[in-house]
Design goal:
This protein has 546 residues and is an alpha/beta fold. Helix content is 31%, strand content 17%.
């Protein structure tokens, strides 16, 4: 099945076409591992990335304060102990520059660069039913004819900006997900930050002491947890490296792919015991309160209300000012039903005389002007720099911005504009030999340590392709019945949670007109893995192969 790299005229004769066994879109955490695994099978593979280097999310998101909120020693590849122990982290939650260096280390150790086309954007991918292959075209003009197309584009990689007039702004606008490599001089400048999710929080706490004046445009307050970020020396690195076997055995089977898990039931403990668990998790300075205190917070409104009030009280103790409390502490949704950010003195930044909040919940942003930002009441906030921490078209945006066409010329963009559907987040009915990672209806950034989930998805795809090669099969596609069954299971699981009753990017609520569906599977990482393994163990039941 493996084909040498060949060049021929494309079907329309317009551009020369290269032939590959597989094309991988993306050179981030999933794309690098995907390239490695397929190459190990002996396939002729090309990975394509718009960036000039590896890293995906950690290449593009180089804004001030960008860092892990998963512990560094679990946000790693676990298929090779040698690769794992060959890198030492400097702290528990390292920043973007160190993360990017780590991914370059991975690319170099695995010799991956020779098969990556950098600085290249995939424009289209069309399935040819006659040849049962994909034709991939890029902005470089050359096409690639490939049997398998594997999208590793990332859950949060399609930046979203919704404000008219941005092109008229005479100052400097920056989206956090397309941050320039050269440093930005904030000293003495009037700066606006639009958005106060996890990214906006990291920006605000990082630049508040540097700017002349900072205006933070806040629509939805966030529950936050203070991060504790100890430095790692040789002893700490040796300690976590000694846990490699433990981590490889544990992470794939916990509820969220983290080392910690939900271990106790709310009903089994007395009120003082519950409080002790909450305090212990809070004091850990990690996502432990969210992802390993009490699972009932996602299902039981009374439990969620009590945990939410616990966090509100912690925030009130730091903010003190009643006006700041009203603007920065959530009151209309429960803790854990939105993404929970870790922060470092974010709340305290608003005590500074050069920092102010502009609430846009009842007075939304109308447009960007030549001099700044105008809100609905007509006020123009003049600034020198606008930082757009406005988030992403999560889950779907990276693929719908590519012209992907399956059987009968059907368009993925059109299909997903009506109903967001996948089969286990691994394939999509109507798109043969298209494999996906970090797309809707699989565990992802909402409730999963991403490297845990991405590795599992890559390995399932790898095993499926290997199975096809052993059987001399050419095409795989989930049946409609299989996809219908998975969508129904996903929705039943999602609708049992409080998450599905809120509005956030988790459900695509930040994108006008986007079909509402919880984007991430929330039945648990371990449960999802078991379901995927069961399909594979039964000769990929529900996936039609020929």
């Amino acid at each position: 099945m493996t084909e040498a790299a060949t060049t021929s005229n494309g079907s329309n004769g317009a551009h020369p076409t290269e032939k590959r066994d597989a094309v991988v879109i993306g050179a981030g955490v999933a794309g690098l591992y995907r390239l490695y695994r397929l190459r190990e099978q002996g396939l002729n593979v090309t990975a394509i990335d718009a960036a000039s280097g590896v890293g995906g999310t950690w290449y593009w998101n180089r804004y001030p304060g960008a860092r892990f909120d998963s512990e560094s020693y679990i946000y790693q590849y676990l298929f090779s102990e040698e690769l794992y122990t060959g890198w030492s982290w400097s702290e528990k939650f390292p920043g973007q520059p160190e993360i990017e260096r780590w991914l370059n280390y991975v690319a170099d150790r695995l010799d991956l660069r020779r098969d990556i086309q950098f600085g290249t954007t995939v424009k289209s991918a069309h399935f040819n039913e006659a040849t049962q292959r994909w034709l991939v075209t890029t902005d470089k003009g050359r096409g690639i004819d490939t049997q398998f197309l594997v999208a590793c584009c990332g859950m949060l990689s399609a930046p979203y900006v919704s404000f008219p007039g941005q092109e008229a702004f005479k100052g400097q606008p920056f989206h956090t997900a397309r941050w320039p490599e050269q440093p930005i001089d904030f000293a003495g400048k009037r700066v606006a930050v639009i958005g106060n999710g996890a990214t906006g929080i990291q920006v605000v706490q990082s630049i508040a002491g540097e700017v002349g004046h900072l205006k933070v445009f806040v629509r939805t307050p966030q529950y936050v947890i203070p991060m504790k970020n100890p430095k790692y020396g040789a002893a700490e690195a040796a300690a976590y490296k000694a846990k490699f076997a433990h981590l490889t055995a544990r992470l794939p089977h916990t509820f969220t792919g983290f080392e910690y898990d939900f271990e106790q039931a709310w009903a089994d403990l007395t009120p003082p015991q519950r409080r002790a668990v909450l305090e212990d998790c809070w004091n850990d300075g990690s996502l432990k309160l969210w992802l390993s205190s009490f699972a009932e917070m996602f299902f039981d409104e009374e439990v969620n209300a009590e945990i939410s009030e616990f966090v509100r009280q912690k925030m009130r103790e730091r903010l003190k000012d009643p006006k700041l409390c009203d603007l920065l502490i959530p009151s209309d949704y429960g803790f854990g039903t939105h993404r929970v950010p870790l922060e470092q003195n974010y709340l305290e930044a608003f005590h500074r005389s050069n920092v102010e909040i502009v609430s846009v919940k009842g007075n939304p942003i109308d447009c960007v002007t030549e001099t700044g930002i105008r809100t609905a009441d007509g006020t123009v906030h003049d600034v020198d720099i606008i930082v757009l921490a406005t988030g992403f078209d999560a889950g779907t945006g990276a693929l719908t911005r590519i012209d992907i066409r399956g059987r009968g010329g059907r368009s993925l963009k059109d299909d997903w504009s009506r109903d967001i559907r996948t089969t286990m987040g691994l394939q999509i009915h109507g798109y043969p030999n298209l494999f996906t990672t970090a797309v809707p209806l699989a565990p992802s950034a909402a409730l999963c340590n991403m490297t845990t989930c991405l590795q599992q998805q890559v390995e399932w795809i790898d095993a499926c392709i290997a199975y096809m090669r052993r059987k001399s099969l050419n095409v795989v596609e989930p049946t409609k019945e299989t996809e219908d069954g998975w969508v129904a299971h996903h929705d039943e699981t999602a609708n049992a949670t409080l998450i599905a009753k809120t509005s956030s990017w988790y459900l695509g609520s930040n994108i006008p007109g986007k079909p509402r569906r919880l984007l991430s599977y929330c039945g648990g990482v371990g449960v999802y893995r078991e379901k995927c393994d069961e399909v594979a163990a039964n000769d990929y039941r529900g996936f039609a192969m020929q």
